[in-house]
Structure formats: structure tokens, C-alpha cells
């Protein structure tokens, strides 16, 4: 196992890549190297209940014995216990559910099972694996938005193992449960794959879809066993239990082997001569995208199969394009062996790219997100993380794409110009010695619960006994509100949905369907963006990148959900400006610390994209600002906010004219650091700072959840305010820049073009704040 036969790829020497990094590290950029040791695998014998037919099929695919975690989870599920298996990427979690599900479908020719994946791509992947294993008569089949009408009828009538996603369960299956009654009556297992992705508001939605499924099943007399698979996460049993609403037993000891990984932390160098007067958008550090593109190109030259994770769609396109350009100059024949891959591509494009990487036609891929990638895409030689992915759980999941048993691999985390990233590459303890976060979801969010109670009532009248399933007291009070509002009607036999049409609920919480990006001249569909980001990403005049090609948006039609574009490669980029107002609706909790106040409560946020700037690529020179005519968006959500008296600011040495800049700088940095204490990323939250707010009558900084009703992030920030604000202060104070940079107080999503900002004064404000707040 230790020496891969002088293999197809000649390199595969992560040490050489690391050497190259170290050489460049002379510039002081390699901040830390961590060796993650190899793990030895542990197999156990097949449990007696696994039928020989299944063992033979598995043996034919090279699986002669299960890893210990696969057996443990499978046997628990087989015995009727709800189970969550939470182990690393590539540890073979699929087998943990395949064993009990297929054994049960074999033993009872009428039994059925349901498999849920968060994405269509993953369901299609699983189908390929099941096709090879499923005994005759099981007929595994995908049932999703891409399934044709005739196929759907066939699946309903004949498949005993249906693969779908929560959205389809919610919109397509539960509302027509009567046509599925035969299938649901015989349902033995429900598999919830990648269950850690059901977090925040989306997680709360899915939790209620699963409760609705359980209720409908109970009506038909079935009570399926739940098998959940999660990436490595803190306390998976609690999160899984909240998701399905049942006690769940965890299996967390990973019995699969893996190779050692060298983990390098990399901070791009400061560029000389780009300080004062270089234009508002001039980068101060070399961009993480450029570093990632160079690393990707290097790795490809060495023959290493490499995956670069990039946070934004646009970033993935840019990294692929730049890597291609680097290769075109150095080793031209390799230039077309790198591609971009992201959510929003059409299914055919995704399949084609996956196939090319698996076959070795492609050596490098710049990808937005692990989730859209096929599960087979593991065992790579190197992974480049362009920026911290927001949580340790996702960091380890992305890193897990590299490394095969008996082989060394390399993972490089390239810090973006961002306060959290710069904090982490200088505090490796916070990466390597902190436990992986728990998945946060809150099924009690009334904004989520209410609509699902309506869906449930439309499926089958709600009875008082049902309310226990949906959360007890909170469900009762939500039902009362729905009755008062006329959505539900009370009858002797329960609560009924009153309208003719079905309730409309969007699980992804983006408010409306995705916006299609269409090329005006040809009518060709290029891809989609979700409705929530359409105002920002594809407003009229925006420059939009797709597969490395540049388009300019002619018109965003919100009514029809279409952005019309034409191909054009202008030498400017576009930057939308957002105007935000916050008003306080209620205060739920507060700390009165004399001149300082800390609050948690409900706020109403009004946001509007009003204009955009065009900036020259390369220099950042502002060409012009153009107005936009987009409607405002309303958001009622949870916020944490702090106030500080003008007197305290004066004694801290912050003169009144710089107060707006000091607060704004502190706001930006604190939003950047919030993911340190809550499982969110900075794009899940918003902020507002003001030298005088009408509702608080004081200088105030608000930080709010970007989802209706909140997602639990601001609440975490309130309870961990000391740690959060201390890390914020430390990040700003220790940043080497003069007057503020993206690694400390500038924000990439600032609606005010990062103006005004006062770095030194922000530190003084935070000092005053921390001195006044009681410890803990
Ligand atoms: Zn800085
Ligand atoms: Zn700002």
C-alpha cells in the first residue's frame, strides 16, 4: 500500500510543491506547516445479517470487509435504531446505509426506501453506485426536477428505492402523498445524506419537511428508520436529532485509513508601492485568487491532480482563467487541462467536467463548493483552499478531497485579504486545536415553522396530537396566529388549510426562484443565480463571468426572473452600492454596562442596491457611478448591537468627526471575525454602524442575521461577545497596514465603498467597549 505503482501521474510529490512554497516563504508568507498524520484503517467481519448475495456483489467491487464505522452504523440501523454516521470525506459513508437498506429490500420484496441528497448531482452519483449493487426488483431511480413526466409515473409505480432531495419531497411528493400511498406505506428507511449541510434557516426548513414526512408515513402506518450521514462535525447526534425530531445514536469513530497530509498556511505578500494614492480599490496584498491560480498551475506542471476551492463563483472562474494563462506561457500543452466548476452550471456541463477530471483529461479544477462535486472525487494529490471556507467542518471536508491511504498529500490554505483569514493563519491553534463546530439549526424559528404548519395542514388536517411533533408550545402558539390571520381554520376534526392553491414555501429561503442568465442574441441559457443575489450579481450593467468568459448584463427582469446578457470583455469591473437602514423592533436581552450597552433583539432591515461603480481592472480607478432602479428588500431578523456614549468615545481619544469611521471600521472587522464564534460565514450576516441612531439615541453598531427570523448567528455573537470583540480588536491592532486594509477593516461587501474607515480609532473604541463590558 505504501508505494503506488509508478503511476499514471508521474509526480505526485507534494513535498516538491511544499519546497516551492517554502522557497517563496522567504518572503515571510508561509506562516505555519502542520503535519496531519496518517490513520490506519480497521476492518471488521461482515455482520451475520448481511445477505451473501450482497457480500458477493460488494466483493466483486473490491470490498471484502467493511470499515468498523460502516459496520457499527449499519448494524444499529438494521436493528431499528436511528443513527448518524459522522466521519471524514472519502470514508465510505455510503456503505453504512447501503447495507441495511439493500438487505431489507432483499428480505422483503415489497419494502421501500427513500434517499435524500442536498443536491441533484449527489443523488445522481449515488444512483450510479446503487445500480451496481441493488438486487433485481429494487429499481433504484432518481425523482427530481429533471425527471420527465413519464419517468415520474414509472418511478412512483415501480421503484423501491427513490433518490431525491428535500425540495422535491416538499414540493413534489408530500403534497401528492395519496399518489405515493403504496410506496409510503411500505417505507422502511429514510437516508439523509450530507446532513451537516442542513444548517441555519435551510436546516430548519428541512427539519420540518422531515417532520411532515413522518406524519404522513404515520397516517399510512409506517415509521421508517432514519440513517443520517454527516461530515465530521461537533455533537452530530444533537444536530441530527433536531433535524429529524427523534433521538439519534452517533457513530463517530472513523475506521477508514488515510494518508498523511501536510497542511500549509499561506499569507500572500504585501505588494510594494501600492499604498497611499493608489486608488480606492488597489489591493494591498497580492490577491489570494492569484496565489491560488499560481499554486494550481504549479501543481499541474508537476502532474498533480489538484482541486482549488474558491468561495465565489466569480472567483472560481478567475482562478481557472489565470491558471490557464500561467500555463499558456510556461507549458502551453497543459493550458487546457484546467477548468472551472461551480453551482449554477447546467447539469450537462457538470457531468462533462467531472468525467474529464476522473479520466485524467483534466488535471486541475477550480471549484466553488465541495457539495456540488461528485463523491468519487477523492484521493487527489493536492488541495488549495482559497480562503478559509468559513467553518472547520468545511475546511476538513475540503481538505479531505486530498490524500489516499499510503500516499502523502498537500493542502494549502491561502489567506484572503480578510480579518478572519489573517487571524487564522497567524493563530494555527484556532485551526488545528479547536473542536469542529456543531451544526446550528433552529426548528423553532416561527418564520419557518408557520409556513410548514400550513403545508402540513394542506397535506392532512392538523390535529392537536400533531403539534407535539412540530415543537409543542411554539407550534400551538404559531397555529393560533395562523388561525387569527385566516390561513388555517379550526374544525372539530382539526385545523384546515383554507385556500384553494397550496401554500408556497421556498426551502432555500432566497425569496423567489433562481434568475436565469440568458444570452440575448442566441437565447442560450448560460446558468442561474439565486434570487437573493441577483440584485448584486446580475443587475443591469453588471459584468458577469461564466466558464472564464465575460458577459455584460443588458437587463435584469425580476418579474420574469431573467437576466439578459451579451458576451463582452470590458476592462472594468462592476461594484454595486447598497443602502441599508435598520430599525429596532424589540429588545430580547441586554447588558447595561454604564457608557456601553450590548443588546440582542429583533430588527427590521431595509436594503436597496441603488447604483454601481465601474472600476478599471488593474488600477482600481473609478470610471463612473451609474444609478440603478431596483426595488428595496425588507428583512425582519435577529440582531446583536452595541452602543457607546459620546462621552466614553471622547475619553477614549476618539474625536467626534472620526466616530463614523471608527464605528464603521469596528463593524467591518467584527463581521469578518464572527465566524470564529458562530457557524456562519460573513455573507450570512450584515451590519450597520452610525454615529447616532434614532432608536438607541447613541453611537451604535448593528450586526444582523441575513435571513428572515434569524438563523442563530447574532444570538451566538451576543453570548460570546467578549471573545468575539477581543479577537476583532486583536486583528485590527496587529495588522501591519497603515490605515486599514481588507485583512482588517475593509469589507468586500461594503455598500459604502469602504468609506469612511478609521483604523486606529476603531481599536480605541473596542478597548473602551471591552473595558466596560463585564467579563463573560
Ligand atoms: Zn490591515
Ligand atoms: Zn461598510
Provide structural commentary.
The chain is an alpha/beta fold. Strands 1-9-14-13-10-12-11 form a seven-stranded mixed β-sheet, sandwiched between helices. A seven-stranded parallel β-sheet has the order 4-5-3-6-7-2-8, with helices on both faces. Strand 6 (187-192), helix 9 (200-219) and strand 7 form a beta-alpha-beta unit. Helix 17 packs across helix 19 (473-484). The longest helix is centred in the N-terminal third of the chain and has 20 residues, at 200-219. The chain is globular and about 75 Å long. The two termini are 51 Å apart. The model is unreliable at 1-12 and 274-283 (pLDDT under 50). The structure holds zinc ion (2 copies). One zinc ion (ZN) binds at residues 664, 668, 747, 750, 752.
